[in-house]
């Protein structure tokens, strides 16, 4: 039995990026080599008809949509130094941790909500018109792939923020609806959010800019809302579990209690809603893991875009592709975890047919690949 895949942040140093072939050091050179890589797979036939490329994407592909990358081009953390992601066990076991998480999430949701897929996502859509991709596996939880190319299957390795999942009954609930509910339960925060939206304080990631525009934070990096510290933040219980208590593992009935406004009460032992994403310290569901592996097995090549493969789940997929002798392409700004392992003898590689590596922006390179291939050659 294989051990469960746990999502853990990797904080070690990353190697300097390789350039394969040597001509992939410019936008045009990289785009031409990628055209070779993608079209060459199509000419091959492994006997099973697996001649398309599976795409694996990470945070780097969404940077141009205005979302912060987990790591910057130099492999260092670019976010607020006080920022620490919440771990699954904290979220599940601590009411206080959930209040803090939801307070932050309440303020952050509008920024995510108004951001959109960028030219890199649309280039994937356009490349798929040439029948080059079999599917997309993404580590991103922003749903941009689904929005940009609804006809190309997407496996969301780390879940998705557009929904919540109840930890007791596993029902999903739309995040938009939940946001309106949070606003009603937390009027002081709702007013504060409206002010921030008016001043534009949430349009910038720069802490100093934000402070000037009225986004005050306390020493822990939490929003300082006048008269409403984050521990006063309230969140709703799962409506289904509130209506009909869930059955617990031991067969007993769960207890879901709410205050007079409908906010989850500490007297409850179930009915907790969680964002439907795989948090750090949480295992990827076996079903999702199997889907990702099946997608890899059904492809002739693997292309990674915007991931330093810092999470083991992603690195492991590329390692599997390498062990299966699949051609590998990596387009990522900055180094990639143990990347030299995937390109032995890379110095002797002269074209992009079976291997590709460039450290350039996806939203520039991918549209250029589309341009070179031309819309006229589209298969459909
Ligand atoms: Zn429920």
TrEMBL record:
The active site is at residue 158. Zn(2+) binds at residues 166, 169, 238, 241. Residues 28-376 form the Deacetylase sirtuin-type domain. Residues 200-223 are annotated as: Disordered. Keywords: Metal-binding, NAD, Transferase, Zinc. PROSITE patterns: SIRTUIN (PS50305). It comes from the Eukaryota. Belongs to the sirtuin family. Class I subfamily. This is Deacetylase sirtuin-type domain-containing protein. It comes from Lithohypha guttulata. The lineage of its organism: Eukaryota, Fungi, Dikarya, Ascomycota, Pezizomycotina.
């Amino acid at each position: 039995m294989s051990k469960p895949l746990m999502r853990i942040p990797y904080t070690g140093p990353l190697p300097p990026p390789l350039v394969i072939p040597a001509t992939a050091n410019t936008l045009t050179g990289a785009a031409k080599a990628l055209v070779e890589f993608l079209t060459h797979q199509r000419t091959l036939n492994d006997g099973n008809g697996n001649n398309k490329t599976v795409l694996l994407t990470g945070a780097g592909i969404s940077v141009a949509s205005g979302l912060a990358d987990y790591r910057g081009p130099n492999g260092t953390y670019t976010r607020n130094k006080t920022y620490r992601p919440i771990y699954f066990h904290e979220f599940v076991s601590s009411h206080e941790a959930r209040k803090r998480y939801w307070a932050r999430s309440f303020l952050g949701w509008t920024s995510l909500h108004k951001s959109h897929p960028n030219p890199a996502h649309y280039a994937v859509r356009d490349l798929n018109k040439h029948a080059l991709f079999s599917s997309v596996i993404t580590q991103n939880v922003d749903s941009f792939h689904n929005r940009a190319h609804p006809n190309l299957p997407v496996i969301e390795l780390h879940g998705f923020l557009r929904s919540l999942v109840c930890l007791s009954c596993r029902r999903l609930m739309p995040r938009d609806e939940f946001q309106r509910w949070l606003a009603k339960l937390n009027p002081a925060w709702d007013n504060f959010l409206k002010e921030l939206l008016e001043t534009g304080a949430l349009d910038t990631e720069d802490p100093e800019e934000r402070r000037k525009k009225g986004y005050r934070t306390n020493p822990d990096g939490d929003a300082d809302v006048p008269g409403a510290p984050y521990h006063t933040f309230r969140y709703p219980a799962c409506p289904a579990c509130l209506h009909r208590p869930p059955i617990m593992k031991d067969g007993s009935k769960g207890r879901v209690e709410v205050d007079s406004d409908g906010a989850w009460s500490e007297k409850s032992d179930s009915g907790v809603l969680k964002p439907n994403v795989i948090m750090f310290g949480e295992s990827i569901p076996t079903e999702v893991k199997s889907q990702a592996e099946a997608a890899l097995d059904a492809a002739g090549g693997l292309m990674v875009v915007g991931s330093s493969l810092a999470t083991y789940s992603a690195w492991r997929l590329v390692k599997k592709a390498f062990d299966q002798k699949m051609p590998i392409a990596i387009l990522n700004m900055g180094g990639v975890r143990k990347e030299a392992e995937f390109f032995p003898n890379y110095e002797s590689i002269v074209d992009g047919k079976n291997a590709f590596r460039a450290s350039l922006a996806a939203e520039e390179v991918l549209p250029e690949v589309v341009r070179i291939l031309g819309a006229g050659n589209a298969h459909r």
